[in-house]
Specification:
Helix content: 40-55%
Largest sheet: 7 strands, mixed
Strand order of the largest sheet: 14-15-16-17-18-19-20
Number of helices: 23
Radius of gyration: 30 Å
Length: about 700
Amino acid sequence: MRDRRTYVFSHLMAQTPMLLPALGIVTGICGGALFPQLATTEGWNLLALFLVMAVAWLVAYWASRNSLRDVAPFAFFFGMSVASVGLGVFRYAIVTDKEPPAWGEGVQIVKCCVLTPPRQTARTWLFDASVESGKNAGSKLRVRVVKQEGGKMPAPGDVLLLHGAIDVPRNNGLPAMPDLAAQMRRQDIYGTMFCYANHWKATGHQSHTLQTWALCMRGQLVDKYRAYFGGRDLAVLSALSLGDKTMLNNDVRAVFSETGTSHILALSGLHLGIIFSFFNLLLFNRFRRHRRTHLCLVLLGMVLLWFYALLAGFPISLLRAAIMYTMFQVAAFFKRMGFSLNSLSVAACLLLLCDPRSLFDVGFQLSFLSVAGILLFQPFFPELPFFGRRWWQEWAHKILSSFYGLLTVSFCATVTTLPLVAFTFHRIPVYGILASFVAIPLAYLLLMGTILFLCFPFARAFLATIIVACLHLMFAGLEWVASLPCSSIVCYPTPLGIGLLYMLLLMAYSFLVRSSLRKLLYMFVVAIAVMMVEVYDYRQHCLVPQLVFYQNFSAPSIHCIESPGESYLWSTNPEKADSALAFAKRTFWERERLAQPVFLRGDTAIRQLLLTPHVLQFHRCRVGMLRNRQMDWPADPLPVDFLYLQKGWNRPLGEALRCFRPDTIILDATLSDFYRQRYLQEAVSYHVPIHDLQRDGALVVFVK
């Protein structure tokens, strides 16, 4: 038994030698993120790790020369594991060991260069920019500017002068809200800025980086699309072929999300596979016998492949696919196996060593999990039997094999990514495989059509008609799938449940490799554990009456929640509040299964709720609300739990405390920076705790 295990271990490492270093680097990065004290750049710890590695390799060498040869591979790979873990820890330490820029307080003028194509809403443009001057030159900002009347939308490479205050990234504090601030920090974005319409202007243009130049070229290609397409067709076509997702609205994203076909809009190996198969069909198959010509075509294919990745802005999923396709082309030229778990491990090592923080990017995780699932599970599906040797039987077999391959690939990718998709996006597309049969063949036609559209200007009118027909057919098919009963299930799994599900997948793979009754029993136990964990979390997560003070920059908003089917929303401007709380509807309200709240208008007295012009009482929690001086001054301050100061109250804090005696003061997000700083300073002298909704995010108060 010992010799058998040694042989299996050595054979596995010989087939995928880069798998162990990749897992070690991943472990090291996770260790550095969870335990920051490990992520130190001191040389002694690094020296100790390499000493352990050297000793392990010496033991492996000594054992291989003596009778303990079965110990050699374990010692060698133990040393390799220690080295890769140490490399992951210290690479993460080097990348994260940076002091965030000190932006200073107050309004300032900043000269920036636009880095990304702006994403536009009804009133604003949102983009990332690099600071070009001052002590923080080179730092990145996320900027939102209000559209100027008749003004031109900024483009990558434009130099802007911005006038406004810079703040550090913060979350809005809602439950079930993803940590957007951490995501921005992983992208080296340490500041956010908002500019009004007349507080910014363009001063020039520069393309000082290769990526900026590529994004400008992509913008020119999108302009060629814009001459023949518009609206939803233009947005989907730009995202599907060029990776420009700035024009996608929430309705289009929702259709692809509910049907499980969002990967169609994210450039990945699917898109590169379609383009490369078209390239092989045109050139490679004709010149495969001519070695020199074939080599030139291989080099040309790799150049075009990386140029396409540059044109799309180097998304992580496309970088992974580009590395794997490069290895595939090199291996195919030398008649070796290109696509394997080893090439996937090489791609992971390269990307993680370049940027260890990409490990925590959802796109990175989904991309590698889907490919790993295809490589691991698809070989266990049997091949379709031949129908015969006649020409029509061969053609039928080819067509059915293509659909069968699409089915197995979609099934493997869906199964391996489903737990992560449910945990990240809180939605399970039930008919995802059915939608793939609609979207993927049409995506193939659309990509081929866009290539011909860009290469042959004289045929663009004819090709545009075909492309529009394919787009409308895709939308009709996906909308039909989305209209099916229970097409999308909303869920909020726990991290422990997700970990157990992936343990179950690994056990299923082990069972497929070598089945046994014991493994089947273990799988059953893990499945029961998953169910128990999720049921326990669901029972613990029961909604209780609560008050929610939203971080709403449009209008003050207080949500009084009695139960999932009964809640009340107070706001000074219900119309603005309803539109501004769209994100809360998709996250917090959806998770708690909240029905549309009833907007409170005027004085109200219902059940446990009492509303007057300056006091809101919900159960035993009392909130004093001030936004103007039109009130009768009481003889004694009214005791309240919270004092809610809103835009319009411009008197000193002492006058507010003559009206109310609060336990905590809440500053609404609509207050100007001047009054916010003033009240923060005055609250210190009065020794009253204060919660700033703009700085600290939404406040949830449980009332019983």
